[in-house]
Structure formats: structure tokens, C-alpha cells
Amino acid sequence: MEVLFHNVRELVDRANKEQKLISEIMIEQEILITGRSRAEIMAQMDRNLTVMEEAVEKGLNGVRSTSGLTGGDAVLLQAYMKKGNTLSGELMLDAVSKAVATNEVNAAMGTICATPTAGSAGVVPGTLFAVKNKLNPTREQMIRYLFNAGAFGFVVANNASISGAAGGCQAEVGSAAGMAAAAIVEMAGGSPEQSSTAFAITLKNMLGLVCDPVAGLVEVPCVKRNAMGASNSLVAADMALAGVTSRIPCDEVIDAMYKIGQTMPTALKETAQGGLAATPTGKWLEAKIFGGAVVSSGN
Amino acid sequence: MKFKSVFDIIGPVMIGPSSSHTAGAARIGRVARDLFGKQPTWAKIHLYGSFAETYKGHGTDVAIIGGLLDYDTFDERIKTAFEDAKKAGLSFEFIPETANTEHPNTARIVIGDDKQEMSMVGISIGGGKTEITELNGFPLRLSGNLAAILVVHEDRSGCIANVANCLAKYDINIGHMEVSRKEKGNMALMVIEVDQTVEEDILEEIGKLPNITQVTRIAD
């Protein structure tokens, strides 16, 4: 199969050489691979964007999962923001609350768009709908945000992994956060190289993150990891836009993530046998949930 | 390359909570139903690795049953698949296994009705993407680079030529093809990787050829 890029280096080089955005290279590759028209491809991404918008909206109105472990935190965060005394800033908390909103909807078996997975579906839309208020993008630029994120995710999925069962949470929320960082940079007017740097900085700081869901549910700690993934990507995007570079090239960071995932014990790869899942409270919650009782505490 | 489309990454649109354990599981179930060609009346689902450990929490079980009922990843009815199965006359059983498999998210689906039985192994490789690795004991070696069609047929002369001729008629080029059978004169399988998209009406035409049991398109 002929592709326009196999790794981030080739992606950035092609964008530079052809004076195109990374999102454009991704769109061109999709046309090349699927033979579908640009209009069809843009329309499909537009629909995915709508699903993301609806999930955020639903989560901000308040949802609760069947287990009772998650839900309602997005509402708390928005109410807190409205008081105007946030420490980390309004845009940051907006992104965090919208990432949380998406994952709360996911945990409640609502409709979401996987980016790149369901467990990590909050980071890309969360940051997008927060950055949107600052940068005032057109609808097309918002769709391009998803193509840029998709280009980086494409490299990770093919050269490493986006599966928590195969690579831990670093492969899911780590990848999602890197994708978001790269996309923020493009929307903010940064260069393809800066997108690559933002991805590298983000993933470097999520390396080693294990997948240890309590009771095997995509709730604790997944929802809050999406919150932190979103904040991580915003900081990394700002660092890249400021001109900070990554000593370790993006592709090598991705490769390191892959190798760490391979050597990670099975107990920490979505089997609910280690980490937070194996804590006394984690075990207690598991027994409560599958014993049929309703859990009323927060996560 | 396992992931070919940007929509493998930004997508699928799905019912939560897990792309691999819910959406991927639904897709595996749906391919099984497609390959069986009709609604089965019973299903035995063996789960391995992370599927076996966490299937209840991820809704893997309802998703697979939803897939067997022909629900897509974004179909809200996945949530009520167990009750729907009861109404549709599909009985099922989940069997968590301890054996190690090559991929952590593996399911062996054995389905049937009073006439036929079928066994299939599917793996969920992340982000909702799946692969079928075995069908009725035939290992499927799909490169994953091309779209493929699976043709289950009776082991009779002319079957392979008929299918190839039909594809040729529509200018569909075969990139790779494998034929296998269990026993002489019994059930056989063609795995055909093609360069072009095989439209639904062509699949139907192949399905109507003599001695063809079932035709399914996978790895779109």
C-alpha cells in the first residue's frame, strides 16, 4: 500500500516541502488510500465532529454511569469556573471539563467518537472546544484539527500501538494527548515541526502510564486521566509554540512508548489486576459493583 | 499497515465505554453473523486475555451479542442486546478462558442453528479495529493491506473459476488468494484480497453461483 508518510519525520518533511498543513497531507493520503472524494471525506469528519460536540454538551448537562463510579464532575468544573477564581486558568479548565464530559458520557454507554480510542476519547474534543473559544476557528479549521490529530494517531497506531491492552494507558491517553497537542499547534498557526515537537513533549510526559481500570470499567481512573491528558497537551502546545524543542525526536519517543508497552507487565495492561484496580478500595469497589450493590461514592 | 484510514483513528462513532472491548467486540460479533449468513439460534463465546478479565466492565458481552444481532458500533440497542437476544430466540453463553493467546483481546465465537455450526476467531487490535484470524479451523492470513472477500463454498470443481470469472467481469483485480479445505469434498474457503472495492451487488452475484454457501467482505 502506498502512503504519503510512514512516520512523523516523513509527515513533517512532506508538509514543509509542499508548503502544506499536516491536516492537508492527512486528507490527501485519505483520498489516495480510499479513492473517496475530498468532499466525502470532509463530510464524514464533519459528522464525527458533530458527535463530539453532542457528547460534550450531554456531559456538561450531567450524566452518571450505571456503576455510579463516574459522572457529574464536568458539571462541578464548569460551575467552579463560573466563579472566576480558577488557578490554572479558564481555557485550561474548560478543556479539562470538556474532556471529562466526553468520558463521562462514554462511561455511561453514551455515543462518542473514539479518538483514538473510547477510553481516551475526551482529550482531542475537550481541547478543541476549549481552544475554539480563544482562536475562533472556522468549521473547516475545526475539521482540520481532527485530521492533524489523526495524522499523528495514524503513525502511532501503525508504528507502535493505541491499545491499552497492548501498550498501557500511555498508548491511549498518551497518544490522544500528543495528537491534541499537535492539532492545537496547527490551529494556533504553528509550524509542522512545532506540531511534532508538541506531540513529542506530551508523550514524553506520559511514558510509562499504565492501564489499571478499577473493576475493568473505563471509569476510574480513565476519566481523570483524560483531564490530565488535556492539560498536558495544552502546556506542551504552548511550549512548542514558544520555541522549546524536544531533544528526543518525535518518532523515537513513539518507539520508546512502544517498547515500554511491550515490557509492561500484563497486570498493568487493561486486565484490572494491578495498579489502582488492585488497591483495597479498587477491589472493594469491584466487589460492590459486581455484587449488584449501587456505589454512591465519587471516583 | 494495520490502520489504513484516518477514520480508524478519529472514529468509529460508537456506544461507550471501550473502543477495543465494546466497539471492536461488536464488530467481531457482526462479522460472525455476516459469515454465518443469518441469525444464529445459539452462541458460545470464549474470551481470552484482557477480554476474559474485563468483559463485564467493558460491556464486551452485550457488544458481541449486539453484533450477532447485526447491530453496528453506534447502535444504541447494544445496551439492551441481552434482552433483544432473548426476544430474537438467540441463547448464548460466555466462557472466560485462561489460555494465553497471541493477542490480548481475543474471542472465539461458535454459533449455529439446528442445521449449521460455525466457529470464528476475532481479535480487537485497538481503536475499534478488528481482525479475523480463523474461520472454521482455517487460519486466515490476511495481509490487511487490501480489502478482502471470504467465500465459504462446497469443495466442488469449478467453484474457484466461477468466482474469479465473476470478479474479472467487473474488472476487479485479485492481489492475493488462498484456498483451503478441511476434507476433500467438504466445506472449503476462499480468501481473496482485491485491489478494487467489491460492491454489494457483486457480492450478491457471487453468492448466487453454484455451491457457494456464503460471501462476506472484510477489512474495508
Structural notes for this entry:
Chain A has 299 residues and is mainly α. Helix content of chain A is 63%, strand content 1%. The N and C termini of chain A lie far apart (45 Å). With 220 residues, chain B is of the alpha+beta class. Chain B folds into two domains: 122 residues, 2-Layer Sandwich (60s Ribosomal Protein L30, Chain: A); 72 residues, Alpha-Beta Plaits (2-Layer Sandwich), CATH 3.30.70. In chain B, the strands form two sheets. Chain B has a six-stranded mixed beta sheet with strand order 3-2-4-5-6-7. In chain B, strands 9-10-8-11 form a four-stranded antiparallel beta sheet, with helices on both faces. In chain B, helix 1 packs parallel to helix 3 and helix 3 packs parallel to helix 4. Chain B is globular and about 50 Å long. The model of chain B has no long low-confidence stretch (mean pLDDT 91). Chains A and B meet through helix 2, helix 3, helix 5, strand 1 and helix 7 of A and strand 1, helix 1, helix 2 and strand 5 of B. Strand 1 of chain A pairs antiparallel with strand 1 of chain B, so a sheet runs across the interface.
